[in-house]
């Protein structure tokens, strides 16, 4: 940020919707007070957001615009305008003047005017600036400001961290920015008490304006409307539509109190800023701005909020919602608050098959409600197993609850927060409820803390205990366990209320605690551009599933069973007697006691000699047939039990497809995981394993498209380590492994011994994972000394990689984490461990994490772009799977070439590296043939 700019560059102006920022700030932090007892949570949240904006923006002018009061000229047009909105929360009112003080403390123009809304002042300044050739960015997520979008005036949504242009306006209103007012005049706005025309919503309004051009033409020609009710309403409520237009049309001719010339960006006066921060107890903020407005890189400590501003925990106040009127009141409250936590209860654990039993909502810490929808027991007495009969509790009919919740859950002005909300998206979708926009506290926790506290630590129960020292009611507490366990629809309402409402309550508390840390720890971009958009995208992919041919799987199971039987006979023949090949104890007795084979490794659990795969591989490499055949037996047994048998059971009977569950929070590097079933671990290194992919098929009239990044991790190594020889080779499309072998072993590429290339390939990929001489020796079946010589030769030929490795290990030791190219933190617990084995393991993980994590980030960036690109091109393909560096799509046969070209273009353009990204793509009727 600077006070000067070049004479040729156009001026840029940022107009910040301060009122919108206030409520976001208020709901982003738990209650806090400064030393004199004044509440300051909104002040602190606003200060953090303002600092972030000033640090990130690239503009010469900036102003924050506020609403002055509730009454404006619009109340003279329509006395009930915004009349139903509740008063501001009691603890927010004293913070309003302090927030203005915050703006002035940072030496930023602060503007408000009696009788006009902030939107009118923004419209006026935008018009004035555009007339002077100044590029305007309006910082707001308010839909009412979308009418301002045009050449020279852009909107930026700080909640979604993305610009809003004409296309986004058209997605929202069905028309361009110049017609937004006409559509709003017809559809009205219940949140502002703008009446509109009864019976006409946004979609219908957009169609009418598209057909007739503008509101006046439509009203003048209303007699032409074919639908009787619609025609009648347009004729009867024409004047109401015109009044509504006057209400939603922003004034751009206000005699504003401050001229544009006073909006120049200026450094804050240090004494004034210091005094403001000190008075409000913001010591951590003061430490950041001392000497520099932009916060310094964090040290990984991850402070969530200012320690001086003490948080208070509200007492729990949980409500059971059993009638529509109560539900409407809660919906209105959620709409006015702007952030609501949501959680669903089901009668089964499967997101794809569980039936909706109830929904919980939370609007403030300690304030939550539960909406029972399919319970079979109401009170504390005996469970009624007779269904929804006389003993069933009073509950809102599902269709009525859906009707009341529908607009709220799709309202772009209300953020819906869930913990693992992807599960809830599936459950709600099956009853006709779509949800957007969403935040996920499980993903927030993962982005901020990753695996530094151990694997699998982002569950709601764990986080509530860690952050609030609160022990949550468990599912076992309300449903029991074992043979006596009941499903949630059998839980009495009193117990269901406490359990379900608590989940929503603590989800909201977590959101208020964790979301501000994104700014504090500079993780906003990772969350907002990489992981948060993946939540609804993965939900769509899981819902789509992939078709599987059970006949192919059953045939493979028969083939594998026959092979298992043959191998069992052969193993028994080699042993000289029958024994249980699956028993490590019996196998160990055969190998080490009866056959006298040698192995120094022992099982950590039993102390007996190990019969693990690594031991059997070593023995097989020494020329022993029996351990080699046992390895084959294990391979076929796993293929049969884990894949060909199990996948048949995983086919959803309703869809005929397999629906995996993708995990966003299960790895240390940001890679996705796949479970129930795991479709990322299907073996592809053996011919038998590859055959399993033959069962994955395209729907009739479609093909499967496999698009796979070529050597993406090696390309990232070349980029991050700045290895000039490898970068040049990638630019020329050379055989990277042959080039490596040529440079290491001094052999020409022409006529090279394939074994040399194989060794170079093993080193190229092994280096990424910090391979040791011992590991390389095992992989290439060579001596440890020869393996070390190969590694030494590699580092001598490519010294940049060794520099990268040492630099990365030092970074991990200093901060406890390393970062990917896109800012993701990959934590490295054990990096300072005194145990050399643990330390070495952590160092290898640190070397690999920026590479594997960078590749994961790149394919996420591509995945996020693909659906929009397909829609824009009018193509009907859909994403089905992501398997590490590969995307699988189902494509109509007629669109194969166009879709392949588009997907390759998007994937290859997902990141800008110093080497080209290359995607190999193939299409076929099966996954095996496409890959």
Automatic annotation (TrEMBL):
DNA-directed DNA polymerase family A palm domain mapped to chain residues: 689-895
SUPFAM superfamilies per record: 5' to 3' exonuclease, C-terminal subdomain (SSF47807), DNA/RNA polymerases (SSF56672), PIN domain-like (SSF88723), Ribonuclease H-like (SSF53098)
Known EC number: 2.7.7.7
CDD domains recorded: DNA_pol_A_pol_I_C, DNA_polA_I_Ecoli_like_exo, H3TH_53EXO, PIN_53EXO
Domain 3'-5' exonuclease: 318-519
Keyword vocabulary terms for this entry: DNA damage, DNA repair, DNA replication, DNA-binding, DNA-directed DNA polymerase, Exonuclease, Hydrolase, Nuclease, Nucleotidyltransferase, Transferase
5'-3' exonuclease domain location: 11-266
Entry's Gene Ontology molecular function annotations: 3'-5' exonuclease activity; 5'-3' exonuclease activity; DNA binding; DNA-directed DNA polymerase activity
Catalytic reaction(s) noted: DNA(n) + a 2'-deoxyribonucleoside 5'-triphosphate = DNA(n+1) + diphosphate
One Pfam short name: 5_3_exonuc_N
PROSITE patterns given in the database record: DNA_POLYMERASE_A
GO biological process: DNA-templated DNA replication; double-strand break repair
NCBIfam families associated with the record: pola, PRK05755.1
Protein function: In addition to polymerase activity, this DNA polymerase exhibits 3'-5' and 5'-3' exonuclease activity.
Family named by the database record: Belongs to the DNA polymerase type-A family.
Subunit structure: Single-chain monomer with multiple functions.
UniProt name for this protein: DNA polymerase I
Organism per entry: Roseospira marina
Gene: polA
